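Supplementary Methods S3. Input chains for the assembly prediction are listed below.
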Amino acid sequence: MKGKDTDVLKYTFYRVLQLIPVWLLLSIFVFAIVHALPGDAIDALVPADAASNPATRAALEKELGLDKPIYVQYARWLERIVLHGDFGRSITTRRTIGVEIFKRLPATIYLAVTAVCVSLLIAIPLGTIAAVKRRTAVDYAATATSLVGVSVPEFWLAILCILFFALYLGWLPASEYRSPFDHFGLSLTHLVLPAGSLGVRLAAITTRLTRSSMLDEIRKEYVDTARALGLPERRVIYKYTLRNALIPTVTVAGLQFARLLGGTVVVESIFSWPGVGLTLFEAISGRDYPMIQAAVLILATGFVVMNLLVDLTYRWLNPRIRLG
Amino acid sequence: MDRQAQTTELSRRIFLTTASAALLGAALGGGLAPWSEAAKRHPQRGGTLLFGTRLDIAGLDSHRNTQYHVSHPAAALYTGLTDIDQKGNIVPGIAESWEPNQELTAWVFRLRQGVLFHNGREVDAEAVKLNIIRIKDPAIGTEFHHGAIQSIKTVDILDKYTVRFNLSEPDASLPANLLHYPTNLQAPDAFDSASEHPIGTGPFKFVSWTRWHETRLVRFENYWETDAEGNNLPYLDEIIGKPKKEDSVRLAALRTGQINLVDNIAHIDVERFKKSHGTKFTTWDLHLGGVFVVFNFRQGPFQDQRLRTAAAHAIDRNAIHHSAFYSQGEMLDQPYPRGNPWHLEDSHSLAYDPDKAKALLKAAHAVGTGIDMICFANLVYNRECAQIVQEMWHSVGFKVTLRPLDDVPLRETLKKGDFHGHIGGNSYRFDPDGFFERNLHSQSGYAQSLSGWRNERYDRLVEEAKRTLDPARRKELYTEAWNIVNVELPHFHLHELTMTSAAAKQVQGYQPCVVGPFTHRGGGIRTAYIET
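Predicted structure tokens for the full assembly:
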């Protein structure tokens, strides 16, 4: 056992080390792609007559560092981030980007974590029951429900939920974010609709995956062996089979969480949720290059880290899995 | 004294008399007592206004980012040298009075004494000068800011409370352009931190702003305006701006009590809302501006006047009135609606005549001509107007491709002239020069980025209208100018841009300006309070 723990530690260490070149490549890719976007930052920033004035343009380019060769711009940008944690200032708001993004990250994480938890709370039991009761009414109902869930657009579901739960029933607030650190109970009431709108769709995808994964596991020999040994069916399913079947589910849940960090712009917009997704969307609309670069880099880093955590979770779920 | 000088002299006298009357009337009715003498709070009026808006500011620095006094709560941070009343007339603001020289090339503004910025610095002539210099900085002021004060060449400080604007050309519209939108005043000692913590002179002070989440403002205890009883304005303790992009979400928030004032109800919801909830909410129908088609003169098929005329004849404004605006507001064939002092009685616009449109196209051998039309992707009324116009042009023989674009790509496309037709719009212009000059004069950068039209006669008429204060004479000149537009068609007006605002009954003492602003002299959020 001790040897196996050492393996895990070694594996974790190497994976963390690997993050460095991955992150560097990511930073190059993000920087390059943002600068390849059509549109000109100076044109987006100042009136047309100012943008076409050579002196004004030159002064602005100098102020924003756009007068240097691209590789110099990249090096300076990277140096500021790595050595000083400075992502620069937003072209539009003129505020510090790091502060802006990290102020919004808690709201985003709060929403994303809750949405994924909602999806798992629905998907795992539903997918498991559908697999166990295969080809019964329960299975068909679960499959149909997940099909509907996958087909319904998030924004439509979100608005429908607001109209029904907030306006018609008056049970929940229509929109807005409340920090859990200010008032946890109130923050939960504000969280239900946005997290639910996101979670239902995620649950639909995860339900199908869990069902499919369970069906694969149920057919394996060790399950027959466990039953033949007289183990209770509940134990066979929930202790042994489900644990193995959850590996793909965990992968997907992890990736969904990572995607939600920057991919909830529609729900954020509808619920006035001050998340990173909406910030990124506004930055793209306004050609706020420093903000786009920073936000994409931070979110991509989050994605990479989530991947690592997901891989490490496999080991916990199934110690027989060889790492590396 | 020649006729022009006589007219100018008469106009100056009229103007000064009017300003003095306003001064006297306001003094009798309240509002001009120095703040130090009237620093008392109304004993019963206060509360928190939860203001739901369709828009949010892009940044806090009001010289870099427009603070729209219709839909940006942050506009409550500011006042300007002039102000507006509830009817949209220009009245004294931080400046008590102003007078031009005979040629209208220099204007002297006398400032009210004792007006403070939120940080306690007094508003004086130096502060005004520094603000104008900053706004004119090409790296700071937006196109809209520049356009407003483009005639200001230099600013002279005559004494601590007197400033003179020296203009590059005669400009009768200057007082209207020194309104807080867009020429608002910031504390010069806080310019550097304007993007983090703006300091203005308005009835409310800045607390915090999180984009697309919340804007928090608190009452400015030393605001200079008072009510008729001498109580300090504003009454409200706090304004919390709650931007909500989605119309249905904003309305739901109002109906559930999450907010108590909305700037804008979607046109489609207005009638139903008034019918179902009229007893629980107060609504106001406001005039915001206009919507029009822009024809590109720089390139494309609309360089041919026959095709422009055909396109104009093909447009049924009545259909737009019902389909895009749900029978709200008025069809417009000019910038100002009926009832507005600048409405032009003798304007002759082209009527809806699809047969004539088809005949014109046929005569020009232009049936099947491809038209590339652009519109704003994010404005519902704009997109809907564009779709209706597209359909109408199809029906007479054009082949129209519609490209809805976001803000930055749209600006780039306009700048490059890479379109044939465009659905444009304008916010209300407090002086007609703000439309006639800015949108259509050949020397206006903005006009060149729209149609690119040039007409010497039009230019001369508009320039002459800037050189006189006589409203009747100005109207004559604008009417003649507008009839040139009606023939040459750089623009073709479609409809009034209207807005319906609504508040819960607990919001008392509030009435927006008829042309949209939620903050105006002696009213709006300055006199609003929440009834408990």
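Residues 438 and 444 of chain B are 6 Å apart (CA to CA). DSSP finds 15 helices and 20 strands in chain B.
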